[in-house]
């Protein structure tokens, strides 16, 4: 009898505990839905607002100066070559020059190094006035085909570069078809510089977005030839220049990594660049640039972040000064809502 009573008591306690727990959960859920949970509600007095803006200014401006200094420490050599690499007889007809395959496209440029550049020195090509983020252009690709190859056949989004001569194109689409195909070779004092083109693409792209058993097929075999050709014996996951190109840029002016120079460059060195000016940017008034750049803890040269910090910090200080002057000119005791009564009476 005692055991039954003890068991009943335990069950009642468990039931009461469960009921109490459900009640607390229900109450907490109700408070959450009605926005009645305990919360920090700071009182925005004039003094606290002015102090916050001042602190923002004193914190943001030094960060901006440090960031801007780090950005300026990155050394860049920039050369626009699309205009100078056109022979004189074709200056007035650039399209004829770039579309006629019988005309030699080789060009030599000389880049003088002004400051010491420590290896690795990153090589970028930059395209201006190139809308790689256009909706139709971005959609003209098949991510599933890039990963699985011919196993995936639903490639209607790749039009007009879906098939050629009755055979599917791998990789299909306008993005792949228009791949950048200018090439560069670098030398210093007639000695070839060591350039690495490995690990220029994101590791996640190489391993998860481009198939290791997917090989180019029927690529650039149509009537309209676009940009670069791909090696049909190398899988897409190993053709890193193609992977770099397929990561669409967000702005009309963008840079893409071409490779790295694995040797230091001294001040006064002249880098001889032998390039092939193959890529057609003349039909849409685009520009092509070659860039050599070092990097630091912040990355390459980009003044935007530092300037943004300085502008925000300066604006915060100016706003705090304006608030302070207004508060000194028209002080109002805390809790005074006379301004609201005047507006209501009027």
Question: Can you put this structure into words, describing what you see?
Answer:
It is found in: Membrane. This protein has 346 residues and is an alpha+beta fold. It contains 10 helices and 11 strands. It has helices at 2-33, 46-73, 94-99, 135-139, 143-148, 174-177, 203-208, 240-246, 304-329, 338-345, and strands spanning 76-80, 106-112, 121-128, 163-164, 167-168, 183-188, 191-192, 195-196, 254-261, 270-276, 287-293. The strands form 3 sheets. The protein has a 5-stranded antiparallel sheet with strand order 1-11-3-9-8. The relative contact order is 0.21.
Please sum up the structure shown.
This protein has 346 residues and is of the alpha+beta class. The chain is built from ten helices and eleven strands. Strand 4 and strand 5 form a beta hairpin.
Which key phrases capture this entry?
alpha+beta, 4-stranded antiparallel sheet, 37% helix, transmembrane helix, disordered N terminus, 346 residues, 10 helices, 5-stranded antiparallel sheet, extended
